[in-house]
Amino acid sequence: MFGARRLWHAVNVSVLAVALLAGACSGDGEDRPKVDVIGGNGTPAAGKTGSGSVSASGPGPSGGAVTTPATGKRYATVGNVDVYFQMALDRRDILAALQPGEGKPADWAKAKEIYEKGKNQVRSDGTLRPLASIPNDSVQAAFPNGAAVYGRPDFINALVRDGLDGTGRAQGLPDDARRQIVDKGIQMLMYGKSLQELASARTRVEQKNPDNNTGAPHAVDEAWAAIAGSPDNNGNRVYGLLQTARGREGNFKLEGKVADPLEAAFVAALASAQKGDLAAFDKAHGEIKGLMNTVFYLASLRYVKSLEGATTQAQRQEQLAEGWTFFQTIRPLVAQASASAAKTVEDAYNRPAEAAFPASVTTAVYQALNEPAVLQALGIPAAVQVKTPPAG
Prior knowledge:
Helix content: 55-70%
Number of helices: 16
Structural class: mainly alpha
Strand content: under 5%
């Protein structure tokens, strides 16, 4: 029964991916209306079509499921963690509801139903696990002092619901801007869930539990699946956080320096979990956290530069919302290292959309996110630190 259900999901994922790639065209931005939408993950987003080829920031030669250069191996799970891979499929279907074919309005009710009730995450007992059920206290513990930083306790759920309901930061925003808050809020959830499972894996390594089905390796599998997402028949993991890493690599010409090392670090984490080697696990764990933070660091840098070129209020509303929501994932760590740096970035992304976005604000954000204390707190590897805005 469950095998048939997984086959049904796999066929549907493949069909959707083929449709998306067949209709994709090159665009100059991310999730922009009436262009090929290179989504927040750097790949064509659901429902937007055109003609031409996919942007260079899309999947790499191996289709998003890559061979890691450090080990020569791809991550291979040792247990069944399908429900974690399927988180990305709920993200996919929420985006499809919010980004339908040209001329169709966003279906906010359908998106909210998927978020609250679930659609693709099938538990072993056949029930659905909704995304809304995931960000519990242990997931939110991945964001230090999060409740105080965000000003509310259930902050991940609250952020996604703001986008779905048009409340809070999303109040008064057009659909394209609200959709960014929903989507990047879900990626924040994936990040938190992955870090929660890695923390659980570390505890099990300490407890000397190397069992592939109940111990540390299983928790590493869950952490990996939460960010990798389900592959289609070609191995493309289009809607996982790992693909967002590829998009950010492309934006800054850092191909091969974030997603591949992140996968390599997960391979190392699994191996050390199986061996019960706590020191090796801690090394891999630290690398994973730094590289995951890098995704959101690069995104926070990207959108201030993009905003300089925005010519309409609607464009600025969308890009302000997109950059702001990406920054929320790393905001607590930045604030912990430098309250002034966090305020600089927060203020930049809360500027009024009616006004042009000056280069001086971009420079201030780059300086804030590259303060030594901030880089250390985030664990950004030297090879992917971007300290000056790109020209043009």
